[in-house]
């Protein structure tokens, strides 16, 4: 197990609680407790100094309940801001953000205790020597009793997400990788009006294979199934490159379904697949370590061969059969090169494997059987196809 990482962004913290669905929060502002809220804090224990933590100790997030490690500049109270994500918030409090489920305290008096909304106040307290985050709902949340009338000047914002929706919007509408099982279930273009061999914008096409009959007006992405993606471990096919070719709108239901191509970026052929343009994906989950140790390989990077920044989407050769879930964090490592020690062996020099070096961290958000999609949330060096991933 690799040593827990230190982040260059914000600091982090760890809690003790049961495993929960993940929340999203982020880059709002911390305030002194006197300014944060006038609500009573009588039920919140006074902060106690934690026992000294050996920062040289290697914590195993799967096997051992490691000591909580708060960042050196963590706030005691934080007001959640619009635009925050849970990832931002967890790194603000924790050195090891994957321990967030351990510190989150569920307040059963709140209607949605797993969700965080703008205006909510997060209070850091200590219980039995361990840190906990206790939520104090904002006045606009609507699930606590008001003592006096309140003037509502703004609609209640939706719960914050774990990662920014904008970062995966392109993935949802124009996927670049299709899981093997997913490809087999996608509807396909059977033929085109007037028997065109190649179709483009404005042409009508006919499709079959819908598991649920679409309604008139439903929009689908046209996807070409490209090259096979093979698991580097056993060379089996686990997916395909998915090439976005355009967009089609349903004009008539039945069998086959009629659609008009409203946009094309390349020629559309019979046999091309359709994927519903549904840009909804649950993004409220906890950042966490996998329940059991996992290692694998990056097999594809969305629209790139390598990346150097955050908010890029990568695909790995591990999925639900390996115990992975949305919100799991994985460390990304560049595999160390193999060199010969010519200073000792001359012509018969011994081969030496250099150590793997950490390149960043990713958070999984979409899981299939043997493929998972993740968002790069930290990057300290170039990340490339066939880089390694493993439990933090």
Mean pLDDT rating: 79
Total count of domains: 3
Question: What is the terminal-to-terminal distance?
Answer: 7 Å
Which structural class best describes the helix and strand composition?
mainly beta
Shape annotation: flat
Range of strand content: 25-35%
Helix content: under 10%
Notes on the protein architecture:
- With 392 residues, this protein is mainly beta.
- The chain has three domains: 1-163, no CATH class; 168-276; 295-390, Beta Barrel (Elongation Factor Tu (Ef-tu), domain 3), CATH 2.40.30.
- It is 8% helix and 31% strand.
- The protein has helices spanning 33-36, 86-93, 165-173, 180-185, 342-345; strands spanning 29-30, 77-79, 121-127, 130-136, 177-179, 188-192, 204-208, 219-230, 237-252, 257-264, 273-276, 295-301, 306-307, 313-316, 329-334, 338-341, 350-353, 357-367, 372-379, 383-384, 388-390.
- The strands form five sheets. Strands 5, 6, 7, 8, 9, 10 and 11 form a seven-stranded antiparallel beta sheet that branches. A six-stranded antiparallel barrel has the order 12-14-19-18-15-21.
- The longest helix has 9 residues, at 165-173.
- The protein is flat and about 75 Å long.
- It starts with 28 loop residues before the first strand and ends with a strand.
- The relative contact order is 0.15.
């Amino acid at each position: 197990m690799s040593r827990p990482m230190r982040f260059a962004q914000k600091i982090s913290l760890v809690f003790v609680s049961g495993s929960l669905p993940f929340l999203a929060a982020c880059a709002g502002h911390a305030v002194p407790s006197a300014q944060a809220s006038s609500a009573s804090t009588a039920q919140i224990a006074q902060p106690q100094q934690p026992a000294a933590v050996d920062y040289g100790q290697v914590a195993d997030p799967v096997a051992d309940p490691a000591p909580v490690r708060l960042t050196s500049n963590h706030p005691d109270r934080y007001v959640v801001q619009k635009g925050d994500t849970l990832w931002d918030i967890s790194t603000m409090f924790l050195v090891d953000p994957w321990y967030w489920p351990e510190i989150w305290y569920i307040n059963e008096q709140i209607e949605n205790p797993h969700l965080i909304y703008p205006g909510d106040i997060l209070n850091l307290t200590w219980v039995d020597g361990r840190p906990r985050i206790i939520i104090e709902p904002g006045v606009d949340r609507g699930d606590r009793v008001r003592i006096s009338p309140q003037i509502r000047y703004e609609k209640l914002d939706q719960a914050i997400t774990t990662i920014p929706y904008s970062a995966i919007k392109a993935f949802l509408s124009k996927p670049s990788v299709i899981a093997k099982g997913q490809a087999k279930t996608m509807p396909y273009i059977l033929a085109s009006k007037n028997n065109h061999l190649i179709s483009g914008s404005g042409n009508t096409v006919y499709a079959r294979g819908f598991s649920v009959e679409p309604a008139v007006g439903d929009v689908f992405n046209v996807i070409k199934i490209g090259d096979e993606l093979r698991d580097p471990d056993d060379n089996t096919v686990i997916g395909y490159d998915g090439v976005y070719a355009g967009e089609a709108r349903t004009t008539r239901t039945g069998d086959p379904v009629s659609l008009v191509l409203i946009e094309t970026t390349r020629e559309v052929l019979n046999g091309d697949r359709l994927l519903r343009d549904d840009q909804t994906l649950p993004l409220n989950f906890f950042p966490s370590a996998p329940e059991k140790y996992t290692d694998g390989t990056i097999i594809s990077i969305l629209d790139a061969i390598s990346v150097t920044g955050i908010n890029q989407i990568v695909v790995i050769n591990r999925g639900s059969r390996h115990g992975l879930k949305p919100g799991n964090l994985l460390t990304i490592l560049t595999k160390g090169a193999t060199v010969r020690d010519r200073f000792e062996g001359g012509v018969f020099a011994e081969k030496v494997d250099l150590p793997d070096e950490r390149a960043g961290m990713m958070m999984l958000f979409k899981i299939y059987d043997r493929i998972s999609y993740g968002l790069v949330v930290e990057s300290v060096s170039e990340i490339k196809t066939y880089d390694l991933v493993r439990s933090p």
